[in-house]
Amino acid sequence: MNHQTRVYESVFEMLPTEENPSPIVRINRLNPEPDFRMYAKLEWQNPFGSVKDRAAWSLLSDLEARGELSAERGIVEPTSGNTGISLAGMASARGYKTRTIVPNKVPMEKKVMLKMAGADLDVVTDDLCPSPGMGDGSINLAKTYAKSQKSRYVMPNQYENEHNVNAHIRTTGPEIRRQTEGKITHLFTSLGTCGTVTGCATYLKEQNPDIKVYAVQPSEGHDVPGLRNVSQLDVSKLFNPDLIDEILEIDFELAYTRALELCQNEGLFAGPSSGLIFEGACQIASRDKNGFGVMIFCDSIFKYVSNMVKHIPELSEGTTPPNAK
Ligand SMILES: Cc1ncc(COP(=O)(O)O)c(C=O)c1O
């Protein structure tokens, strides 16, 4: 494998590592504070399109190493979309089946992507972020499959599996340190399973305890796929508040407006969770004035076109001929 020429023998060789990092790109026109350098880590450049390639590969390769997968026995997993898309793409390329359970609020684009990646799909009337005690929520339904059909399914469970965190200790953290030559002072992430924040914070604070870690949470009642408000976090066994210096609550509508601004001013086609992280980073940059910030931009906007139109209806204006019914 040669990361210079980018000639690969399989899609798996493209997965991010310290030698083949996802890019970091500086924010220019939208940076509120010239002495605070802001870089976005573009996770949509990963081969299956999001930060979840890292966790999915870690989960899948662990199951493979333990002999849990075969042509007859595949993966079942609850997902807000991205983990499922990464897992299904990888499993299909390896010859395994996948069943994904998604909350209904997940955008249509992601549901269709899951099917195109080869997953069987169950859609449940769950919260956007599955929570316990909700009857057969997406997590519980996945557990039911894994328990009642042991010969057909194994459930990695991204909300509890340490391999999710380890993926970021092994790859994202070292990539960021190398790309910033150790100069990073602020890390900005979101909270979903919390694999990203816990893994990156563990590695980076070990290297330099002065690095500050900020996590954003959308305001309650939100509609930002992949993210959780802290009130929804009891489902994640990977959340470690000791590693987070501050959690910023941000009006969830800003996820959409900030994502659009990034598209229209920076050429960065960032999705809504990146929009929310960007708003948090701007608030801290304006407060701290000086620093070297890295934001994890988890995925791109393409899977959220229907959500963008829902939140910013003007976007659909002029998209049909004037005399169309
Ligand atoms: C778009 C998006 N942003 C952020 C996250 C949060 O990442 P993590 O689960 O590592 O906390 C996810 C997780 O699924 C996601 O899909």
Topology, please?
Blueprint: E1 24-26, E2 36-42, H1 52-65, E3 74-78, H2 82-94, E4 98-103, H3 108-116, E5 119-124, H4 138-148, E6 153-154, H5 162-179, E7 186-190, H6 195-207, E8 212-218, E9 246-250, H7 253-266, H8 272-288, E10 291-297, H9 305-311
Parallel strand pairs: 2-10, 3-4, 3-6, 4-5, 7-8, 7-10, 8-9
Antiparallel strand pairs: 1-2
The structure holds pyridoxal-5'-phosphate.
Pyridoxal-5'-phosphate (PLP) binds at residues 50-52, 80, 82-83, 190-196, 226-227, 271, 273, 298-299.
Q: What are the salient characteristics of this protein?
A:
single chain, 325 residues, alpha/beta, Rossmann fold, 2 domains, six-stranded mixed β-sheet, four-stranded parallel β-sheet, 9 helices, 16% strand, globular, binds pyridoxal-5'-phosphate
Descriptive account of the structure:
By secondary structure, this protein is an alpha/beta fold. The protein folds into two domains: 191 residues, Rossmann fold, CATH 3.40.50; 103 residues, Rossmann fold (3-Layer(aba) Sandwich). A six-stranded mixed beta sheet has the order 1-2-10-7-8-9, with helices on both faces. The chain is globular and about 55 Å long. The relative contact order is 0.15. About 2% of the residues have low confidence. The structure holds pyridoxal-5'-phosphate. The site of pyridoxal-5'-phosphate has 19 residues, from helix 2 and helix 6. The site of pyridoxal-5'-phosphate (PLP) has 19 residues, from helix 2 and helix 6.
